[in-house]
Amino acid sequence: MAAFDDSAFDNHERVIFCCDAATGLRAIIAIHSTVLGPAAGGTRLWAYESDEEALHDVLRLSQGMSYKNAMAGLKFGGGKAVIIKTPDFNGSAALYEKFGEYVDQLSGSYVTAEDVGMSVDIMEIVSRKTKYVSGLSKKEGHAGGDPSPKTSYGIFKGIEAAVKFQLGNDSVDGLTVAVQGAGHVGYYLCKYLSAAGAKILVADIDDTRVNRVADEFGAT
């Protein structure tokens, strides 16, 4: 893999390849920019078709986090990590702890969090080996917990804004909305849409997720 030659490479500051034979961990951490502060961005667990695809994904995602954090006025740069879900992936606590060790070795230049395929429970395991992790269980006086409801609410408000631009009002009542993916974020998005009176068309590679949304929100 030639990171410099990837189309998503944008003068990234660091790209770290993490491999541990004992646990089966294969991961990539990409730090796009620390100009505004430590690189912040979630860790994605995904079954990539190739290591090259994983590299491309982490490069483009980390770049995106630089812009997202800057636009939000946060004192964070952009970073991202991907854990490659190999055919023999075991998802053990030892694997996630080892990933936490790799994050910790960066001494705070990268702060990780939950992304697709991860969970609050997994991030708690990662935090056993590093303090540079957010999105942990909610505690008194601290933010935390599953970010999916807030992420999906942002998408829902974006849909309302698009509807207002196109139709003159921001109500989705009676409108048909297609949702691709019914995981954590997709589930809560369907919940918001259903409560607002929208008709939902949903698709997901996991029939269990589709059936859940269909049963709870009348999606088709």
Radius of gyration: 19 Å
* CATH topology term of the largest domain: Rossmann fold
CATH level-four homologous superfamily name of the largest domain: Leucine Dehydrogenase, chain A, domain 1
Mean pLDDT: 95
Which secondary-structure class do the elements indicate? Answer: alpha/beta
Tell me the number of helical segments per DSSP (H or I, 4 or more residues long): 6
CATH architecture of the largest domain: 3-Layer(aba) Sandwich
Unreliable segments (pLDDT under 50, ≥5 consecutive)?
none
Overall number of domains: 2
H/E element sequence: EEEEHEHEHHEHEH
Structural notes for this entry:
The chain is of the alpha/beta class and 220 residues long. The chain has two domains: 3-126, Leucine Dehydrogenase, chain A, domain 1 (Rossmann fold, 3-Layer(aba) Sandwich); 148-217, NAD(P)-binding Rossmann-like Domain (Rossmann fold). 38% of the residues lie in helices and 19% in strands. The chain is built from six helices and eight strands. It has helices at 51-71, 93-104, 120-126, 148-167, 184-195, 207-217; strands spanning 14-20, 25-33, 39-40, 43-46, 77-84, 110-111, 176-180, 199-203. Strand 4, helix 1 and strand 5 form a beta-alpha-beta unit. The longest helix is centred in the first third of the chain and has 21 residues, at 51-71. The radius of gyration is 19 Å and the shape is globular. The model has no long low-confidence stretch (mean pLDDT 95).
